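Entry for the shared binder. Reason: the reviewer on the internal report wants the predicted structure included alongside the sequence.
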Amino acid sequence: MKHPSNLLLKLSHSLFTDSEEQEKFIHAVTNPQPFNPAILWLQPKPTENPFNVEIPVLWQPEFVDRLSLETKPGKHPLHQAGHYYCLDFSSIFAASALQTIPEPLELILDMCAAPGGKSIFAWKTLNPKLLLCNEVIGKRIGMLLSNLKRCQISRSSTINLDSKILAEKTPNTANLVIVDAPCTGQSLLAKGDKAPGCFHPVTINNNANRQKRILANSAKIVAPQGYLAYMTCTYSTAENEQVGEWLLNKFPQFQPVTVPHLEKYRSHLTEIPCYRMWPQDRLGAGAFTVLFKNTSEGEINQLPPDFLDSTRFTNV
């Protein structure tokens, strides 16, 4: 076992009071193990599934299969044909909160969309009339667009705008805004990937401030009675529970939504109903998810007629 850094030890103490849980968490982060791959079916499943499938967990959507460890679904011809999308099981956990939203929806905006997994999950789950996939980092647009086209995600478009500009151009328009926020990515370590400086307080603070900025702009876009979903793939409370508490203080018209099928995973670190996947539970490297509803009344704005014409906009 690798010796944990003092910053990781400090984080574990802030997350768990039980010393055994602290040790399990630290071991999962410092001794990465492979996690089962998962796929999100977009076309009907074949009569004979080409993969070895694990027994589903209770909250698992029926259009998702968790596969045996040795499986390489990205190399199968059905992948290139767009029959399914390969998605980390932690991401499926986070996105599953969207299943509590009543459908159909007119407009979904994914604020930080690349490479497209959460957008595709939302499209499959909620059947929107229009799915707007925004990605502020220009060099990631190609990957996003490629995935949307391969998976034949109809009624979708990609845009490349800062959240502040989107809030100014499209206030009170979206029935759902998804913010899969840029974060320190601490869970990457549990998968054996690198996340330099991810436990450092300055890095965490910088990310939390960026998350709050994106969330504040996103909240302005959510239509009356619409939803705002916030997700990360990191562990620190400063980027998760505390960001949710900040949002509720700044935008009191928003209220947290209970997600019954994730109740077993409810975070013990806040009174707000939000949900965590921990790496020591061996389902995925880690995820945080919380869903808010805009309880205000009022008219829903339509997208400005020239909005799509005046942006870097691509039909799929």
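Summary line for the report: Residues 201-221 form the longest helix (21 residues).
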